[in-house]
Each structure stands twice: as structure tokens, then as C-alpha cells.
Amino acid sequence: MRRLFPLLACLTFLAACADGARQLNKPVEPIGDFKLGHAVVIAPNIVKGPASRDATDEEWIAAVDSAIETRFRRYQGDRFFHLGVSIEGYVLAQPGIPLVFTPKSALIVNVTVFEDATGQKLNEEAMQLSALEAPSKDTFIVGSGLGQTKEEQMAALSANIALSIETWMRKQQRDAGWFGGPDAGVPIVPEPAEEVAPEAAAETADADTGEAAEVMAAVEEPELSAPAN
Fold first, then answer.
1. pLDDT in tens, 191-229
2. CATH number of residue 85's parent domain
3. Which residues does UniProt assign to the signal peptide (predicted)?
4. Exposed, middle or buried: residue 80 (CB in 10 Å: 0-12, 13-18, 19+)?
């Protein structure tokens, strides 16, 4: 667990990541056959990073669980999968000095995916993922510590970590065939029927009728002759 401290310290100075909440506005593309069964979020050994605001385990569990439900309930595949998420560490940036010291908020989780039908883990070792605050007009210069409340920081980080989980799952779908592979869950659109001119349709119907008559004649029962005395 000690290794999370330098990681959290490093993350506070890195560039911000994509905006998970904004990504929800994009059209829903299936993740193979994935459909969310249960999402279990825990925080057994959460670590608070340096120069961070305080947040309780319960607050983090509620925020991350809400973000996961919002993102993954959109997918309606044919098979249920469960997500186990352990919140490992966080930094909720405090107000800094603009242009000199603007700490960034960060969140680290471990993720495991289970297949409902078999009860098996898709990844034997939990995958560790991290997320940073997304850039905005309120945080680009002064950081989220000054531009957002603690609750806003937590909601933004939770949305970003849910997006990080989805991005990782899609990579596993492509590379390891999770959730049925890249073609699973994609709706099949039938090709439009080819238009046939009325004259050609009539000729086809006459030909079909003639062929049907010939077939019926071939299978008619022969006349039975009277038995010889």
C-alpha cells in the first residue's frame, strides 16, 4: 500500500485526463455481449494522498458506485457480467497558487470482471486504473481545489474512473475476446430487398407456376390396375 503514496503524489502533477461525464453524451456502442449484473464497490484500505481534502469511505463508495451505474447500465447485451471495484487511493486537491502550484485531483482503483454464467474472473489479477481531473474553464489555471467543491471533485473523478474502466474493457474485448469479441452485440441490419420491375416479376411468377405444375404432375400417383384373376 505504501507504493500508492508516490503514485498519488506523481499523479497530482500530471496532465488531466478525458472528461468522463462529457463522454456520456456520445452514442452507445455495445461492448460485445456485456450487460451489467452487479457492481460491488468497496474501500477497505483507501489511502489519502498528500495535500488532499478529506473524504470518508462511504462518500467515495457512493460516488464511484453512482458513476459506474450511470455508465454501464446503458449497455444491454445478452450476457451478465459483474464488476468488483476496490478504491485504493485518492487526492482531492486543495486551493493552490495559480500558475505556480495548482495541484490536481486523482483517483486510483483496482478492478475485477466476473462472468455471471460461469462465476469465473476474466482477469485473475485485479487491474489497477487511475483517473485525473478533467480540464475545464474553472480548473485549467487555478485547479479543481479552488474551482470546485469536494463533492464536485469526487463526482468528476468517479465519472473519469468509470470511463477508464470502460476503455480498459474495450481493449480487453479487442485483444482477448472478452464479452464475445469485437462483433458480438452488434445489431445485424438486413440488406434492402432488390427492387424488381413489374414485367420481370410477372415473368418470374409465370415461370414459377409452370415449374410447380410440372413437379406436381411428376409426383401424381399412377393409376392402379385391377388385380389379375
1. 454 554 555 544 544 544 444 344 334 434 444 344 444
2. 3.40.50
3. 1-18
4. middle
The whole domain housing 112 covers: 4-180
pLDDT tens digits for range 111-162: 999 999 999 999 999 999 999 886 555 544 445 545 688 999 999 999 999 9
Give the gyration radius of the chain's Cα atoms.
30
Q: Please give the tally of structural domains in the chain.
A: 1
Q: Check residue 15 and give its pLDDT.
A: 39
Strands (E), the chain: 34-42, 47-48, 79-91, 106-115, 127-132
Residues 6+ apart with CB under 8 A from 164: 17, 20, 129, 130, 131
